[in-house]
Amino acid sequence: MGCCFRGSTAIPPPPMETSMPAVSVGEYSGLKQEVLIQIPACKVHLMDGGEALELAQGHFMIIKTFEENVSLATIIKVGDDLQWPLTKDEPVVKLDSLHYLFSLLVKDGEPLSYGVTFSEASLGSLSLLDMFLKDQSCFSGLNLSKKNNLDWREFAPKVDDYNHFLAKAIAGGTGQIVKGIFICSNAYTNKVQKGGETILNSSAGEKTGVVARESMSNKTASASKKNKINKNLKRVRKLSKMTEKLSKSLLNGVGIVSGSVMAPVVKSQPGKAFLRMLPGEVLLASLDAVNKVLDAAEAAEKQTLSATSKAASRAVSNR
């Protein structure tokens, strides 16, 4: 999948930076990681509660980990701290020439929607990104404006309605894994693309209605909205950290990273059951797979914390 992009970059990195070559990692001769696409100077906003909150800015990188010809994970990273998995059923919408909307249905809440803005200098490189996204995600292009001046703060209320729709569509099932490749069903793809286009292309009057309803909110509603935003920011940080740990764990032999929460994942029952898929199956090919890994890691973390707590209690008692 996407082999034609292997080793390429949309724009060469600055002299002080080096891209990651396709090299073997550790004792696994067939395990490799490489930067497929790198585009400088982008910004990412979280669309939440009708608002747009800046999360990160810096180089936009697509990094793939694979073993032989089997893709284990595709990761998007922006700056130093923000990253998330890119999956075959992940809805990605190109709103105009410079603005993209990535949406992930992560457990415990509605989809996290990231608004990515590229600079005018990147225009000539985005066709390569579009080609990759068409092959590696549930991609659609709307071309809402030729002026490329979309304001995420004004657009955010539409994304709330879009997220409600996506949550139901994604939960309904997306496809199947066949011979190591995740296949999205045509029904799912058509539903997401056509439904998303209808919502995101909605009239200005509908957006005004949302704003009008919000203006009637009281202090309690405002506090509730702030709490929701804080909760989703925590979800963003959790997803970024888990994505980083998953990437490192793959490079160290699927789930074994000293000192991280991923170390006990292979020892937990949910972790063992899911990681048996390797090699020969796609690890992070679908949003459902991402959530299963998050569940496994969370279960392992709880088991570890519980064991540590009991051991500490016994030590205190013995003392």
User: What oligomeric state do the depicted chains represent?
Assistant: single chain
- Residues in helices, as a percent range: 40-55%
Annotated CATH architecture of the domain at 31-193:
Roll
**Distance separating the two termini:** 58 Å
Write the CATH fold name of the domain at 31-193: PH-domain like
Order of helices and strands: EEEEEEEEHEHEEHHHHH
For CATH, the homologous superfamily of the domain at 31-193 is named as: Pleckstrin-homology domain (PH domain)/Phosphotyrosine-binding domain (PTB)
Write structural notes for this entry.
- This is Senescence/dehydration-associated protein, chloroplastic isoform B.
- Residues 168-319 form the Senescence domain.
- The protein has 7 helices and 11 strands.
- With 319 residues, it is of the alpha+beta class.
- Among the domains are: 31-193, PH-domain like (Roll), CATH 2.30.29.30; 268-310.
- The longest helix has 33 residues, at 219-251.
- The radius of gyration is 21 Å and the shape is globular.
- The termini are far apart.
SSE blueprint:
Elements: E1 23-25, E2 28-48, E3 51-67, E4 70-78, E5 82-85, E6 91-96, E7 99-104, E8 112-118, H1 126-136, E9 138-145, H2 152-171, E10 175-178, E11 181-184, H3 186-200, H4 204-215, H5 219-251, H6 269-275, H7 287-318
Parallel strand pairs: 6-9
Antiparallel strand pairs: 1-2, 2-3, 2-8, 3-4, 4-5, 6-7, 7-8, 10-11
Helix pairs in contact: 2-3, 6-7
Protein name: Senescence/dehydration-associated protein, chloroplastic isoform B
Pfam families: Senescence
InterPro entries: Senescence/spartin_C, Spartin-like
